[in-house]
Design goal:
The complex is a heterodimer. By secondary structure, chain A is mostly beta strands. Chain A has four helices and 21 strands. In chain A, the strands form two sheets. Chain A has an 18-stranded antiparallel β-sheet that branches. A three-stranded mixed β-sheet of chain A has the order 1-3-2. Classes of the chains: A mainly beta, B alpha+beta.
Chain lengths: ~450, ~230
């Protein structure tokens, strides 16, 4: 069963990698091939330290190619997203012959600056980034350097990030990240939500290389130390069980599967990931597939383990501002993995209608699969970038502590949600999920607030 | 009609040459067209240097007008936007200028310059939104897009998916402190406004009727033809 499920998941994700995108409609007035505008060269104005090569590395335009407005806009948007520039404007000039065009990017470079932010993580809940210091592009070669803090109810930490180019770059990159963080891992033990602090810090070194226009191969080597606390606390009041929030859960009362994994571990992790993007269009007009396969091996001073995950997504516009979207994900990890490296089912990104991580035992699952379909409709604003979107969803998830997945234990949630476009954050959302199978908490529905689309 | 366009013609005669100057709105003239409040604007410096280069390379350029209807005390009581798009055809040696109410084919950049110098009939609001005897002003702002945005503007979150796939259980957003301050100080807008002007006070019952664009300074080659809305 497990092999069959993995085969399906892998096929879905490879489909995402290999599928061809739908043709994009031409935007410029050029009608016939003979009348097509051709990009002759690209120029940069207003730059003081950034070279043209740095810009060319970050845009998907090449001299000699047919030119369309949407590709120019995409290139300008790609440059804005690099955070190398405060402003990016674009215009064109006539080239050396009629129909040949020179694209001119007029930029104002970014200076060292401060940023504020927020995030939502299934494991850690909401958190704030009260300070992020950015020193991007100091050498003019486009490197991204930032020092960021993050604080939330269940997470606090500091991350120093250096990358040869920003995440928006579509070329090969290297990265180095130094991090120190304390996360609260939540697990359910006989209906009681336990908050277990886990400290982890380390160094990540990564390298990515594009394989064609739509596929990216990434590899990461990490050295980290992980240390779960020897005790935990009750995360939410359960008066009916005589437990109140903040009450200590000493070592002796911790679940056996957790106690077995306590103590400091030094881990060396080697990961390989293949990511494919074959999606075209924006918002509810997006069409196509995306996916990622991730494999990693971890050497630990306690026990070595391996993990594999797949993630596939599909988008299909149905017309009149309607879109169908689907998400399939799954993963397996070997039995030696400690609880903080295992999968947990339930919550916004797996099965809505249940609290986060509530559908897995305290020590987590070795195998997990989740599938979701959404029907989205633009209520206010254009389908390509709606201001308000309504959606219906059906989520299902399977998990198994021994790595096998039993379809009899399918968890199903159904419900509706809303996404609202707001400044900076882009989209915030609220989903109301109704559990259709048994839940460890006594709820007739569960609310999830989130950032952006669920997938 | 004469009362409406006389000041426009006078200003156009007195205005310095457009080439090389920053875009400016010289006169704002509200009018009525059927059930709509429309606006005529006399401008200078359009299309600008970058727009002209873009047009000559064969790609479209655009202007966005932002209208705010102010009551006598200066309070905003309504608003709208209108886009004027100029699409060149290198092979037919033509420029198609599209306004919300009509389109015109022109022969040269000079013709385009003449046309944009005196634009009429930009729709603002339904007339029924105006009280018959109350006094209003129109505030007009102008944004210039040397390269016209495509028909559907691209969403800014289009390519954020890489991070979602890399870490499917996590979403994060951040904003520069400068942008945040600009927003709270009211200095950030969706459009990069480059010029602004106010109309004189007017009343709905006194509005002149808009019929067609007034005669701009005639280019040497006449416009080919005009199309209805």
């Amino acid at each position: 069963m497990r092999r069959r499920l993995l085969t399906i998941l892998a096929a879905a994700t490879w489909g995402a990698v290999l599928a061809l995108p739908a043709p994009a409609a031409p935007v410029s007035g050029a009608a016939s091939p003979a009348r097509t505008l051709v990009l002759e060269r690209i120029e940069l104005e207003g730059n003081t330290r950034t070279g043209l090569a740095t810009v060319l590395d970050r845009i998907d335009l090449r001299p000699g190619e047919p030119l369309r407005i949407d590709r120019l806009e995409t290139a300008a948007e790609d440059l804005r997203r690099t955070r190398l520039f405060r402003e990016v404007a674009i215009h064109t000039r006539p080239g050396s012959a009629p129909g040949r065009v020179v694209a001119v990017f007029r930029v104002r470079e970014n200076r060292p600056h401060l940023r504020l932010g927020a995030g939502y993580e299934d494991l850690s809940g909401w958190y704030l980034i009260p300070l992020e210091f950015n020193l991007d592009n100091l050498t003019g070669r486009g490197e991204a350097l930032s020092l960021a803090t993050r604080f939330g109810y269940r997470v606090s930490g500091l991350v120093l990030n250096l990358r040869s180019s920003s995440a928006a770059a579509k070329r090969s990159f290297w990265m180095a990240r130094l991090r120190a963080e304390e996360q609260s891992r939540i697990y359910f033990d006989d209906g009681i939500e336990i908050n277990h602090p886990v400290s982890r810090g380390g160094l990540d070194l990564g390298f990515g290389i594009p394989l064609g226009r739509r596929v990216l191969l990434e590899t990461t080597l990490s050295f980290e130390g992980v240390e779960p606390d020897s005790s935990a606390t009750v995360y939410r009041d359960r008066e009916i069980l005589g437990r109140s929030r903040g009450a200590a859960v000493p070592f002796a009362e911790l679940p056996a599967s957790i106690r077995a994994d306590l103590g400091r571990r030094n881990q060396t992790r080697l990961a390989l990931a293949l990511q494919g993007e074959a999606r075209r269009g924006t918002g509810l007009e997006a069409r196509g597939l995306r996916g990622r396969i991730h494999l990693e091996g971890v050497l630990s001073d306690e026990a070595n383990f391996v993990r594999a995950t797949v993630d596939g997504r599909a988008y299909l516009p149905l017309g009149d501002g309607l879109q169908a979207a689907a998400h399939l994900r799954g993963g397996v990890v070997s039995v030696e993995a400690p609880f903080y490296e295992r999968s947990y089912l339930g919550g916004l990104y797996t099965v809505r209608g249940y609290p986060s991580q509530s559908l897995s035992p305290p020590g987590g699952d070795r195998g997990m699969a989740a599938a979701s379909v959404e029907l989205r409709t633009a209520w206010i604003g254009p389908a390509a970038d709606p201001r308000v979107t309504g959606l219906l969803f059906l989520d299902a998830g399977w998990a198994g502590g021994d790595g096998a997945v039993d379809l009899k234990d399918t968890a199903v949630g159904i419900g509706y949600g809303i996404r609202v476009r707001v400044p900076w954050v882009r989209r915030i959302g609220l989903d109301v999920g109704v559990p259709l199978s048994s839940s460890p908490v006594d709820e007739s529905f569960h609310l999830n607030f989130g950032l952006g689309w669920t997938y | 009609m004469v009362r409406t366009f006389a000041p426009l013609a006078l200003l156009l005669l007195l205005a310095p040459p457009a080439v090389g100057s920053a875009p400016a709105i010289l006169v704002v003239s509200p009018a009525a067209a059927d059930s709509l409040l429309v606006c005529g604007v006399a401008t200078r410096g359009l299309p600008g240097g970058s727009s002209v280069e873009t047009l000559r390379s064969g790609l479209p350029s655009a202007l966005v007008f932002g209208f705010s209807l102010l009551d006598a005390s200066g309070r905003t009581v309504g608003g709208s936007r209108a886009e004027v798009r100029i699409e060149p055809d290198l092979w037919e040696d033509l420029f198609l200028v599209k306004t919300p109410m009509y389109s015109t084919r022109l022969r040269s950049v000079d013709d385009v310059r003449g046309f944009l110098g005196n634009l009429g009939g930009l729709p603002v609001l339904p007339l029924e939104r105006l009280a018959r005897d109350a006094s209003y002003r129109l505030r007009v702002r102008l944004a210039v897009y040397a390269l016209a945005p495509s028909e559907v503007r691209r969403s800014r979150d289009r390519l954020t998916g890489g991070g979602e796939l890399r870490d499917p259980d996590r979403r994060e957003v951040s904003v520069g402190l400068n942008s945040l301050l600009k927003f709270f100080l009211g200095k950030e807008d969706e459009e990069p406004w480059e010029a602004e002007a106010l109309s004189p006070l007017f009343r709905r019952r006194d509005l002149p009727r808009f019929e067609e664009p007034p005669a701009a300074p005639r280019p040497e080659k006449p416009a080919l033809d005009s199309e209805g809305p």
